[in-house]
């Protein structure tokens, strides 16, 4: 039976453009390619989790604005179930415009996140965790995330916290985490370096911690040891969503492997996703099974 994951957080509509460079002031560019997809950290993680063979449910705010049908269609294509936190909302959901530079794979993003569309914890009254095996929280719906983490902890369901960047309220969610997987841009109050961030997270008694650094080794800390895990080399075409895909792959593999193995396997999947443009194209080609089994 496939594992079932609940992914809590941001849902956006992403417009992606591949270009030779980022436009200068008052400059117009013709894109080399484009794509459209549902986006957001929890969303892309759910897509990766589903693609790898697990069963994903996304808990996020969508609504009934006409553009929401585009997002719904993409999630259905990717096999992700959606539990809508705001089914009656008529305003547009957050959108992102992303320019990927062809030569480097680097991306520039302008977006509206969930800051203006926060949902109260009361919205999850009918949400059940009965059949859920793992929960991921990306921090974009903090009240909902905290309530879900509290329920998950009571049911002994592992909680993964995606720390992309620090957001007010994370101090209330992190104590529930079994796994904190943070980027190098995650700086809790008073923390400027990854070493300080690691100490902060260890101070919260989180048993398993990882700090990613893009194409550099992952720092990890477990009850047994601290160390590093190397990242597979890849020629990056597009780095957009790689961290989100990493988190989704980790949630898939941690149910089958130990912490270090799951990190290494997730890194292989994330590296593979960087080899193609957009956040969906990578799913059309096989991942190196020797490295990501």
Strand and helix map with partners:
Layout: E1 4-8, E2 12-19, E3 33-39, H1 41-51, E4 55-60, H2 68-77, E5 80-84, E6 95-101, E7 107-111, E8 134-137, H3 142-154, E9 159-163, H4 170-173, E10 179-183, H5 194-203, E11 208-213, E12 216-221, E13 226-229, H6 242-253, H7 259-273
Parallel strand pairs: 1-4, 1-8, 2-6, 4-5, 8-9, 9-10, 10-11
Antiparallel strand pairs: 2-3, 6-7, 11-12, 12-13
Helix pairs in contact: 1-6, 6-7
How would you characterize the overall build of this protein?
The chain has 7 helices and 13 strands. With 293 residues, it is α/β, with parallel strands linked by helices. It has a domain at 4-10 and 40-60 and 119-284: UDP-N-acetylmuramoyl-L-alanine:D-glutamate ligase (3-Layer(aba) Sandwich). The strands form 2 sheets. A 9-stranded mixed β-sheet has the order 5-4-1-8-9-10-11-12-13, sandwiched between helices. Helix 1 packs across helix 6 and helix 6 (242-253) packs antiparallel against helix 7. The chain is globular, with a radius of gyration of 18 Å. The two termini are 17 Å apart. The model has no long low-confidence stretch (mean pLDDT 93).
């Amino acid at each position: 039976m496939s594992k079932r994951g609940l992914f809590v957080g941001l849902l956006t509509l992403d417009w992606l453009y591949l270009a030779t460079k980022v436009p200068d002031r008052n400059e117009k560019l013709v894109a080399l390619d484009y794509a459209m997809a549902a986006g957001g950290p929890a969303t892309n993680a759910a897509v990766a989790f589903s693609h790898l063979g697990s069963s994903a449910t996304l808990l996020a705010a969508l609504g009934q604005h006409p553009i929401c049908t585009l997002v719904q269609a993409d999630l259905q294509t990717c096999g992700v179930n959606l539990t809508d936190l705001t089914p009656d909302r008529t305003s547009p959901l957050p959108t992102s415009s992303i320019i990927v530079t062809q030569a480097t794979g680097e991306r520039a993003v302008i977006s509206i996140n969930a800051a203006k569309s926060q949902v109260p914890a009361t919205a999850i009254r009918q949400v059940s965790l009965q059949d859920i095996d793992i929960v991921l929280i990306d921090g974009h719906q903090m009240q909902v995330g905290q309530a879900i983490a509290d329920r998950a902890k009571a049911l002994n369901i592992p909680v993964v916290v995606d720390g992309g960047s620090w957001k007010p309220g994370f101090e209330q969610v992190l104590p529930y985490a079994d796994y904190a997987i943070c980027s190098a841009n995650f700086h809790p109050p008073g923390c400027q370096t990854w070493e300080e961030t690691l100490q902060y997270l260890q101070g919260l008694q989180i048993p398993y911690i990882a700090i990613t650094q893009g194409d550099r080794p992952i720092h990890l800390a477990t009850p047994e040891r601290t160390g590093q895990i190397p990242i597979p080399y890849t020629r990056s075409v597009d780095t957009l969503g790689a961290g989100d895909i990493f988190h989704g792959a980790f949630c898939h593999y941690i149910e089958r492997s130990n912490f270090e193995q799951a990190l290494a396997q997730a890194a292989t999947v994330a590296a593979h996703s960087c080899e193609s443009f957009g956040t969906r194209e990578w799913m059309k080609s096989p991942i190196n099974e020797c490295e990501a089994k």
